[in-house]
Structures are given as structure tokens and as C-alpha cells.
């Protein structure tokens, strides 16, 4: 059913800018259910797509927790989506772009680090990820009768959960381009329109369960603070960049309206929006309750307090160092969250308390 929509085309690789090198290996878990998830997103949920898709390598100390080797995740260990899979008792989601050892029995992860809703320096924007899903579904149908491929049935495609975690990079790129705060906010409707187009295309091709995340507090990331802060007057009460967080809030307000619209229009579907901003901001606001001592400081980086982040001396570079194993940090490398922070985030996601409507993912997945 190779359906496509106007404006969706395969990316050009002319502007590809490679800044990291990564490696991936298959990561099976014990399986007790047939819950299926198709995930679309960026580095917050990329389980190794950038590594496999571009043939790159992300060296130590990434992956030092749990896996004890590099996995292509921008983290010291597991991402929030890994903990969700564990809770659902399904395999970790293999990246769509991984050619060796992938297991797509319980879904596919189309998320790629560095991407946005539109084409950037890294290929595979949201539009391409959805086209990849359509290709996967078509190939699954072709191979199923031969006993090959994932063997996901048409009913299982219909009953699967389609999760979307996208928008953070769009906002960050706008700020990096030195757009004023009002202009950044003016771009938000276009970002959400592309997200809506992606969800609509999945809906037109049979998807009926949508789990949508809003974006987190960008102004609390050590990288943002280290590179973009000019003076302390730009900070909020937690020491985060106010404009970045306000832009994220503006995005999330409009995302809430989009979720209401989708719920109204898709009468035979379930749309759940999860407040990732509140989940992550709580880590910074109440860091002592979670045992985090320096909430705005990267575990792995260079420069020491207050942010331990220096441009071109980032985590994985020979001159960068990581905090001791067992130290509790929110930020792993100045941009991405640590395994311990991801575990807390996942538990809150799974609670259903941060979702509208307040449906648990476990319930949605198996309904």
C-alpha cells in the first residue's frame, strides 16, 4: 500500500555533516507479550539508527552502564524507551536502519539522532521515517506468506502503538540560527503541521493508537547553557535559560491543541499526549529528592563546574572525562540524559499521570 503525501520525498544527502561515530549490537530481552510499538523520533529515543545508517562509531564511555559497551545510544546506558520495553516485557526496539541482528517482532524504532521534522544536516527527518514505516509494512505483507520477515500481521499493525517524540531539534536549530524568540515561536505551527502530517499518514495506513510526547526543558541542558548563555539575567529560578524553556512551553501549548484536534477528528482512534516537559523539569526542580547533586552539570564532558561542557571537547573525545560510575547526574553528555534519569522518566511515563487522557501505556498497548 505504498501511500505517500505531497511534500514527502526521500532526502538528499548533499548536506550531510558527520560529527559523531557510532557502533551497534543486537540487544535481546526476555519476551512475554505481543505488544508492538513503532517509534518515530530523534536522539532521545534513537537506539542505534545513526550508527548503523551512516556507518559511524560512538566510542566509550557511552554504554558503560548496563550494556558495558557502545550501543549507538547517546547515553551511558538505557534510554527511556528501553525501560518502557522492559516494562512491557518486549524486545528492545531495533533500529530500522540496522542491517544485522535486528529483531522486529515487537516493532521498529525509526528514530534517528540529530533529526528534526524537516531536513537538517542529518538525514531521515520525520517525513522520511514515516515513509520507511510504509515500506516496512509493505515488505512485511509481501514476506509474511513466505514465513519471512517480522511476521507482524495486519491486525497487529492496526493494534500497534505509534509513538512520536519530535520537536526538540527544530526549536534548538531555530535558536542556533540566531532567530529572535518571537521568530522561534512563529516557527512552531510549521513544526506541528509536519508532525500532524506524519500522524495523519500513519492513520490513513491503519494506525489507530498514537502516543505523542511534547518536548522537554531545552534551557536546562548543559550544552545550551554553556554555549548560549550571555549573562545571568537570561536565567530562570533554576538557572535554566528562560527563552529556551519558554519556547518549549509555547510548543507544548500548541501541541496540546493538536492532540485535542486529533482526538476530535480521529473518532475511531486513541490519541494520548504525554507531558515530557513536566517529567524532565521535575528532575531539575527537585533534584535533591532524586539524589542529583549538580543538576545542570554534564557527567561526561570538559571544563568542570558549572556545566562541564566545552565545544569540540565533548563526551567521547580524548580530552573529555566522565564522572565516576555510580555518580548520579541528570545529563550524560550535556545534551542527553543519563540512564538513571531515563529510568525515572520512564516510570513517570508508564504511570499515566502525565498523560492526557490518563491512560497507561500498558493498557493502550494491550487493548
From TrEMBL:
The keyword Membrane applies. It holds the Pfam family Lipase_GDSL. It comes from the Eukaryota. Keywords: Glycoprotein, Hydrolase, Membrane, Signal, Transmembrane, Transmembrane helix. The chain crosses the membrane at residues 7-27. The keyword Glycoprotein applies. One of its GO terms (molecular function) is hydrolase activity, acting on ester bonds. Belongs to the 'GDSL' lipolytic enzyme family. This is GDSL esterase/lipase At3g62280-like. The gene is LOC109709207.
Amino acid at each position: 500500500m505504498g501511500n505517500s503525501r505531497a511534500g514527502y520525498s526521500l532526502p538528499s544527502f548533499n548536506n550531510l555533516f558527520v560529527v559523531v561515530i557510532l557502533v551497534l549490537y543486537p540487544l535481546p530481552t526476555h519476551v512475554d507479550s505481543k505488544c508492538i510499538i513503532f517509534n518515530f523520533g530523534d536522539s532521545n529515543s534513537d537506539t542505534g539508527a545513526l550508527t548503523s545508517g551512516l556507518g559511524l562509531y560512538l566510542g566509550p564511555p557511552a554504554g558503560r552502564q548496563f550494556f558495558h559497551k557502545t550501543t549507538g545510544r547517546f547515553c551511558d546506558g538505557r534510554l527511556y524507551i528501553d525501560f518502557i520495553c522492559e516494562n512491557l516485557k518486549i524486545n528492545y526496539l531495533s533500529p530500522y536502519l540496522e542491517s544485522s541482528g535486528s529483531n522486529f517482532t515487537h516493532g521498529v524504532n525509526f528514530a534517528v539522532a540529530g533529526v528534526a521534522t524537516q531536513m537538517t544536516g542529518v538525514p531521515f527527518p520525520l517525513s522520511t521515517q514515516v515513509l520507511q514505516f510504509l515500506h516496512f509494512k509493505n515488505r512485511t505483507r509481501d514476506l509474511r506468506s513466505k514465513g519471512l520477515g517480522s511476521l507482524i500481521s495486519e491486525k497487529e499493525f492496526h493494534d500497534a502503538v505509534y509513538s512520536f517524540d519530535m520537536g526538540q531539534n527544530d526549536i534548538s536549530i531555530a535558536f542556533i540560527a540566531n532567530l529572535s524568540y518571537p521568530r522561534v515561536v512563529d516557527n512552531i505551527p510549521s513544526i506541528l503541521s509536519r508532525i500532524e502530517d506524519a500522524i495523519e499518514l500513519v492513520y490513513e495506513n491503519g494506525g489507530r493508537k498514537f502516543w505523542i510526547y511534547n518536548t522537554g526543558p531545552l534551557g536546562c541542558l548543559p550544552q545550551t547553557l554553556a554555549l548560549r548563555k550571555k549573562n545571568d539575567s537570561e536565567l530562570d529560578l533554576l538557572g535554566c535559560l528562560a527563552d529556551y524553556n519558554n519556547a518549549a512551553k509555547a510548543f507544548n501549548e500548541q501541541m496540546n491543541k493538536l492532540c485535542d484536534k486529533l482526538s476530535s477528528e480521529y473518532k475511531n482512534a486513541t490519541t494520548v499526549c504525554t507531558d515530557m516537559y513536566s517529567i524532565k523539569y521535575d528532575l531539575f526542580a527537585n533534584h535533591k529528592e532524586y539524589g542529583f547533586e549538580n543538576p545542570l552539570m554534564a557527567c561526561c564532558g570538559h571544563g568542570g563546574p558549572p556545566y562541564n561542557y566545552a565545544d569540540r571537547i565533548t563526551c567521547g573525545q580524548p580530552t573529555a572525562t566522565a564522572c565516576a560510575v555510580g555518580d548520579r547526574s541528570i545529563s550524560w553528555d550535556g545534551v542527553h540524559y543519563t540512564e538513571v534519569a531515563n529510568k525515572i522518566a520512564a516510570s513517570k511515563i508508564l504511570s499515566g499521570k502525565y498523560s492526557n487522557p490518563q491512560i497507561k501505556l500498558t493498557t493502550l498497548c494491550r487493548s
